[in-house]
Amino acid sequence: MADIMDILLSTTRLVTTTQLNHQEATTVVLHQELSSPAHDVWAACTEPGRIQEWFLPISGDLAIGGHYSLEGNASGEVLECNPGRSFRVSWVMGAGPDSELVFTVTPTNTDHALVELRHTATVDPDLMGTYGPGAVGVGWDATLLGLYQYLRGIPTGPSNPLPTHAMQSFFEASSDAWATAAIAHGAEADGARAAAVRTTAFYTGTDSSGAS
């Protein structure tokens, strides 16, 4: 449990506004330093055989211009790749909004690396008001937790779920952290905190808002 909270506390979160396909979009940004060399982090996030060990099975062509699919999750196109350093992909979930993901890994010394994850999406204002940036950000916190555990040799993935009480605490803390990031970006504090409660309920399966 300590490791879970440690990675939450050591992750930096930002919320920014930008343009995507000539529309106003919201970007959530996560920075996390991992105690693994950059080449190992890169391999864990780009080699299909390793991705499925901590995230999801992936299929398709991972070269620039190729299309990929994560089983039961997102699909998209590989838009850019700087081998060993960064990639940019489109990120499509069902009939969801336009979305892009940029992943960057930077060595900080021989055995540590800084990961930056940027997810930009055009989001319906009502949906943003209901859940805030945590609707996306909490999922990426969970993803970085899986990567962190995998690189440390801790069993992870769907076949090795964390205890329910630990995930409850994780989702609450992550949602609250994203509320803080939203407030720093200019969101009204009470509304951001209320959105965090709804985001926690969504991730824990207790959401009764009827949102899909």
From TrEMBL:
<feature type="domain" description="Activator of Hsp90 ATPase homologue 1/2-like C-terminal">
    <location>
        <begin position="37"/>
        <end position="151"/>
    </location>
</feature>
<dbReference type="Pfam" id="PF08327">
    <property type="entry name" value="AHSA1"/>
</dbReference>
<dbReference type="InterPro" id="IPR013538">
    <property type="entry name" value="ASHA1/2-like_C"/>
</dbReference>
<dbReference type="InterPro" id="IPR023393">
    <property type="entry name" value="START-like_dom_sf"/>
</dbReference>
<protein>
    <submittedName>
        <fullName>Polyketide cyclase</fullName>
    </submittedName>
</protein>
<comment type="similarity">
    <text>Belongs to the AHA1 family.</text>
</comment>
